[in-house]
Write a structure and sequence with these properties.
The chain has about 160 residues and is of the alpha+beta class. It is built from four helices and ten strands; from the N terminus they run ββαββαββαββββα. The protein has one domain (about 5-160): Oxidoreductase, molybdopterin-binding domain (Sulfite Oxidase, Chain A, domain 2, Alpha-Beta Complex). The chain is about 20% helix and about 25% strand. The strands form two sheets. Strands 2-1-10-5-6 form a five-stranded mixed β-sheet. Strands 3, 4, 7, 8 and 9 form a five-stranded antiparallel β-sheet that branches. Strand 1 and strand 2 form a beta hairpin. It binds the ligand Nc1nc2c(c(=O)[nH]1)N[C@H]1C(S)=C(S)[C@@H](COP(=O)(O)O)O[C@H]1N2 and molybdenum atom (MO). Molybdenum atom (MO) binds next to loops.
């Protein structure tokens, strides 16, 4: 099996490719332990979005954070400024790499998301299986549902195929 990698690219000074073991070596102050404190139904440990951004250094053109999940062809694009202090990248559960069933190997989380499709920073932007974080000039790819019906359909599809969703 190949080692899962997370690419951070787009409008950045230094593109970066990270693995679980590299993320596990981040400084204590960059870590976010036990995300169930923010989301009772979710768990695991991560690092702050800010710690990732400080390594890639977004350029002045970067205004959106576009999160890509190749595994199920899902994407969400959120404005960079408000997400900076709110974003977490979860990569570990119980000291082990986060599994696909848990939404891993990498999962984006917003500390305090709005209800689904009520805001740009909503629960639907908590992208699972993220393999690429792209800094974009304006809004990038976004496949999030835009109304209740689309949202229900997406969740129905995920429930039918739990390991792929
Ligand atoms: N890759 C991927 N991430 C995704 C989705 C998806 O279909 N694919 N659904 C989103 C939606 S609509 C919601 S509400 C949350 C649900 O997260 P949960 O399963 O942890 O409750 O994940 C989001 N992240
Ligand atoms: Mo959602």
């Amino acid at each position: 099996m190949t080692t899962p990698k997370l690419t951070i690219d787009g409008h950045v000074q230094n593109q970066l490719v990270l693995t679980y073991s590299e993320l596990a070596q981040f400084e204590e102050s960059e870590r976010v332990l036990d995300v169930s404190r923010f989301h009772p139904t979710r768990n695991g440990d991560g690092v702050t979005l800010e710690s990732l951004l400080s390594r890639v250094i977004p350029t002045s053109e970067a205004s959106y954070l576009t999160l890509h999940a190749t595994a199920d062809d899902f994407a969400a694009s959120v404005p960079l400024e408000p997400i900076r202090s709110e974003g977490i990248l979860v990569f570990s559960v119980d000291g082990q790499p986060m599994t696909l069933e848990q939404g891993g190997p990498f999962r984006f989380l917003i500390r305090d998301p709005a209800a689904c499709h009520t805001d740009e920073l909503d629960d639907c932007a908590n992208v699972k299986f993220v393999d690429r974080i792209e800094l974009t000039d304006g809004r990038g790819r976004d496949t999030r549902p835009t109304d209740d019906q689309e949202h229900e359909e997406l969740h129905r599809r995920q429930d039918e195929k739990p390991t792929e969703s």
